[in-house]
Recover the amino acids of this structure.
């Protein structure tokens, strides 16, 4: 595989740089821990290492140094398409280099070799009641695939630590290849006729997802590529990526790590926000019998806040401006579905919610994040809201598995921070103050 060859050229150099940095600055202080960090979810504390992506509070996500507009412009695209091959983005996340078309296609080809739905995974999904949340089925299906892990098999055979990344890379490719297959089947089991649509050899990974969902619309192929690219990564500290990193640090394989990450993504403050954002917009639409006016939506927003609830899709732990992922989706909406009622509702929300949140005075960031719009685009193509977090998960797999392989390449150890009792924290704080 071309990707393995390229990584085996790069990894010795990355290791050397890290070792030199560690040798020279081992005890240099780069951040300090305050009492507040323990009560505020360690917000912003600089304690994780990964070269894959970086979130600037104002410019948003950078994949290996490239912003979203740069990535969408520079990555190779299928003939006639405006959205890039997802395989090209995966190449960039792993190597740090923008791929040639041949390199992007080499990832797409590697995926094709694993795009099937094993019988036992299909049977596991079909054994579950249809009122199970799709995220539960998704996480379960990934665990059901775990027996395929090359990493776990080769680890048992005594694979040296320096080569762990190679086996992890095999898992990364096989796992990400199957996710759109598994997810589309879950969708059709829960909301369709339960039949399995196999992937087509002539379609790329993103477009194949649209095909396997049974949505035969080129705009949905474009949206799928865009959706997975935009959701692929958001640094290592977000709840799902960090969960996978922690689990992987025990040398559990990527199947275990990714399944755990999906359980974190399923929470309402994280990946479930896209489902909740659409629900919130739908409630406003229903209340006012159509697209509300700015005054009506302002009233509706205050009702939500006064009831002690958050406005889903707005605010962010790191960002302090409109999320560029939101902007990319907004441009897609303007191009492909400008007359859609819910897209018009999103436009009204963008005019009023930031102002309402500023007046409310709590949220550090009143601007929309990706979840304020992503569901509206999916809804246009008839996709059920409960499935939105699964779509997020398919995309996030790209970043999570790239971080996972990178961590093994850098031979990072098991994570083990220290917890304190309230009494111990108090005495340490008193000592520090004195
Ligand atoms: N509506 C109402 N209140 C909000 C708010 C919103 N959209 N965003 C933040 N706040 C409130 C917080 O609840 C917090 O209140 P308390 O002090 O009473 O606890 C206060 O403002 C300060 O919070 P913050 O520092 O601005 O934000 P956090 O880093 O604590 O939380 C969240 C970031 C994204 C969780 C938060 O903004 C939120 O709950 N937003 C709505 C849910 C959402 O859109 N989540 C998806 C985020 C993107 C993502 O990870 N997707 O997976």
């Amino acid at each position: 595989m071309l990707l393995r060859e390229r990584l085996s050229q790069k990894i010795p150099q990355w290791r050397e740089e890290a070792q030199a940095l560690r040798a020279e600055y081992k005890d240099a202080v780069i951040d300090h821990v305050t009492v507040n960090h323990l009560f505020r979810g360690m917000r912003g504390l600089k304690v994780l290492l990964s070269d894959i992506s970086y979130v600037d509070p104002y410019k948003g996500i950078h994949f290996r140094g490239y912003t979203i507009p740069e990535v969408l412009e520079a990555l190779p695209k299928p003939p006639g398409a405006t959205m890039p091959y997802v395989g090209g983005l995966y190449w960039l996340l792993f190597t740090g280099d923008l791929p040639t078309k041949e390199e992007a296609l080499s990832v797409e080809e590697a995926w094709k070799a694993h795009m099937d739905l094993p019988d036992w995974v299909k049977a596991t999904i079909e054994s579950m009641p249809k009122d199970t949340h799709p995220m539960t089925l998704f996480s379960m299906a990934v665990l059901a695939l775990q027996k395929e892990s090359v990493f776990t098999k080769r680890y048992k055979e005594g694979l040296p630590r320096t080569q762990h990344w190679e086996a992890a890379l095999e898992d990364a490719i096989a796992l990400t290849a199957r996710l759109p297959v598994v997810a589309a089947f879950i969708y059709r089991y829960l909301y369709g006729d339960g039949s399995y649509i196999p992937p087509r050899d002539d379609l790329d990974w993103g477009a194949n997802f649209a095909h396997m969902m049974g949505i035969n619309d080129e705009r949905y192929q474009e949206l799928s590529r865009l959706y997975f690219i935009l959701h692929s990564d958001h640094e290592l500290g977000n709840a799902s990526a960090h969960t996978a990193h922690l689990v992987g640090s025990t040398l559990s394989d990527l199947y275990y790590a990714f399944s755990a990450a999906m359980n974190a993504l399923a929470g309402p403050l994280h990946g479930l926000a896209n489902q909740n954002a659409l629900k919130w917009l739908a409630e406003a639409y229903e209340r006012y019998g159509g697209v509300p006016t700015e005054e009506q939506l302002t009233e509706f927003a205050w009702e939500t806040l006064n009831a002690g609830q958050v406005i889903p899709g707005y605010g962010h732990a790191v960002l302090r401006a409109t999320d560029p992922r939101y902007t990319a989706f907004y441009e897609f909406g303007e191009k492909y579905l400008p007359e859609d009622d819910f897209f018009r509702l999103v436009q009204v929300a963008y005019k009023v919610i930031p102002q309402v949140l500023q007046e409310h005075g709590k949220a550090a960031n009143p601007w929309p994040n990706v979840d304020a719009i992503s569901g509206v685009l999916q809804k246009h193509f008839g996709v059920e809201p409960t499935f939105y977090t699964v779509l997020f998960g398919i995309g996030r797999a790209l970043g999570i598995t790239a971080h996972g392989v990178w961590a093994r390449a850098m031979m990072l150890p098991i994570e083990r921070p220290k917890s304190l009792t309230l009494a111990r924290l108090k005495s340490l704080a008193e000592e520090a103050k004195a």
